Amino acid sequence: MTAALDETLIMTAARLEGATALPHLGVIHASGEDAASFLHGQLTQDIVHLPRGEARLAGYCSPKGRLLATFVVWREADDRIALVCSADLLASTLKRLSMFVLRAKVQLSDVSSQWRVWAWVGEAVRQTAPAQPWALTDFEGGRLIRLPDVAGQARALWVGPSATLAPALQARGPLDEAGWLWLEVQSGIPRITAATVDQFVPQMVNLESVGGVHFKKGCYPGQEVVARSQFRGTIKRRGFLVHGPVALAPGQDIFHSADPAQPSGLVVLAAPDPRGGSAGLVELKLSATEGGTLHAAALDTPALRLSPVPYPLLADV
User: Which of 194, 216, 222, 225 could be a cystine partner for 61, CB 3.0 to 4.6 Å?
Assistant: First the structure.
């Protein structure tokens, strides 16, 4: 079941327009003739068959199937793959990936100082970017990646050389970064940060339901755990949206009124809500969504309002 869009959500999203740099995101380049095949064997996504002109979501898992990072990934050139992830875990992720290069002809580099990531929101995105989510096009010397709309508002990422600085985006007017983060939360698309590393199997945060897991691509670290979760009906936790008057932060525990002794979930992403209070994408036990009240950090905090994410969940079978 997906959430019905309420008028306040639509009106709030419609007021968010403009562009802003996103310093909390970093960029990795994997270069060399084995770049695609190497990443194909490490990530949850089919990288070998990734076409030009298309970006995809991907996860990087531990052997136990827990997400160490999530990426937006695309083919920058025939022998170069670009990946965008949270900057606060980029160094550790790059170090871990580099351990498995061995004899593969691939070089992994943090290019965040040479490449910038910008957010762009508004009707101009609809007029400029590709119509389909995750399609990309050349724009202003970089790549413009269309993201799924949020409450009818168009969104895109621009990734390009720092020297270019996306002049056309700057001319669109400033976008409040907090507003962008709120839109990201409302999209329901998970992004792993340093606070949530090694906490979730992909299905716990709906990564497979937003296209971030390819179940026929073959082996990668944690693949058996991820596949077993999907095909043996063992998904007991999922991602949901919450809203409340208290501040939320990634990595914060969520408690349920019927089970005060232990957390029932964890905050994945959070942002101030322009309508007041805070919004969060949270991972929860399914049993915690069937009644009672949810609370951030402790049971004596105000109750959170629970909502489903704005896309259908891929059923476990």
Answer: 222
